[in-house]
Structure of NADP-dependent oxidoreductase domain-containing protein:
Amino acid sequence: MHRPKLRTRSSKPEEPMRIAEKVLLSSGYEMPVIGYGTWQIPKSTAAEQVREALEFGYRHIDMAHGFNNTTEIFESIRDWMKVRKFQRDEIFLSAKIWNTHHSRAKATEQIDEMLQMLDTPYMDLIVIHWPYGWAEDDGMFPRGNDGKPIFSNIDYMETWEALEEAHQAGKVRSIGVANFNLSQLDRIYTKGTVKPSVLQAEINPYFTQKDVIDYCTARNIMITAMMITGNPGSTFYRKYEDPNLLFDETLISIAKNHGKTVTQVLIRWILDLGLVALIKSNENKRIRQNFNVFKFKLTPDQIERIDSLNKNFRILWPILGNYNHPHFPWPFKADRN
Ligand SMILES: NC(=O)c1ccc[n+]([C@@H]2O[C@H](COP(=O)([O-])OP(=O)(O)OC[C@H]3O[C@@H](n4cnc5c(N)ncnc54)[C@H](OP(=O)(O)O)[C@@H]3O)[C@@H](O)[C@H]2O)c1
């Protein structure tokens, strides 16, 4: 498997734990290997949690209009950079085009809004959040009388072209997609003018997605892995009886062997695969702990044992009326509806 060279750079001397390891993207820009995830951070605490992550040393923040907390987070980052006198290129800002903004005009509008709210000339990365689009100008979650999402028939290639234009105009340094299946990603890769630098995908030991990793490795598309812990506390898409990585005996024994937590082992596994790890926590102690993974490495045997836990078990399956959309990425599974 491809293992990108990690680059290290020490940062400001007054800051104790500011290690920022990075990977080089196909766009020519670097991305810190650990990103702070912001899904399910309530609006009321979002500003403070992101500040905490920045203070502790995270230099890559993963945001999305669809997470419904960007107003607070954008403001927090903007203010923090001013107060702490950080240069724009010291922080990697990643965001997404939401389902209600798939037309060229709306996607462009959403990018311009981000730049304005963050008071920045460019975003480091923007991905298309989902391949399927919803009705525009009808709120963030447009729903019909049957409670199901109202679809738009806009092809994600149009959204991609808006991203390409923004990239060419210097508004977005790297562009990519999230939650696309391999044929959708391949369509972008082969038909697009600009190659996708990133695929954001669910990867964890119960869902190793080797075919996706191999496809991306062969084309120099970096995977930013999400749901590394399987997001065990979430009630979105999860059922109570679903397997929980944090209780897995193999992972617990490897964690004990290194004197680390299971979450730290999961993050380290992603990094040792040569991928970028997104991790979210609402707890300050965990935010710090999750970043403290640079001083140990898994052995090849441990990586193999973790790889072999695969159950092809996908959690992020928001069928929720989206299944009939022509661009829904995954096959229907009645028990996940
Ligand atoms: N593009 C997409 O569609 C998409 C989808 C999903 C995720 N993402 C991105 O990827 C990020 C990460 O994914 P995720 O948030 O779904 O899953 P995740 O980071 O795997 O899981 C977060 C969960 O793990 C818990 N956790 C974190 N650190 C822990 C620790 N040290 N010990 C025990 N539990 C811990 C958190 O609980 P506490 O908060 O209570 O600590 C939270 O319940 C998201 O935040 C988002 O930015 C993108």
